[in-house]
Amino acid sequence: QAQLVESGGGLVQPGGSLRLSCAASGFTLDYYAIGWFRQAPGKEREGVSCISSSGSIAYYGDSVEGRFTISRDNAKNTVYLQMNSLKFEDTAVYYCARRPTRCKASWGTVEYDSWGQGTQVTVSS
Description:
The protein is mostly beta strands. It has no helices and eleven strands.
């Protein structure tokens, strides 16, 4: 059974950095693209980034472009999201999800077939 577990969230000041991890088990990570999404209270789930199965292609949402970097280590069955220059508006629960098809610069959640439980990121002074 496919499982994704996020970690690395926490409380950080504006301008700070965090690195989230998404640990995969129960399937061969090499075969799948992985996406990161986030959801703030009262808001819809927002696409943050997607990385291809090989790691050679990545897409970013407009609100995080230039500040966040997605990467993966298939040997460790882990995908990462490095978040720099964090802003108050980055506060949300962050989720990783498995995508059987190629990444695209579109963020329909129906394209993802397995989700983690999420990790809270809070940006506050």
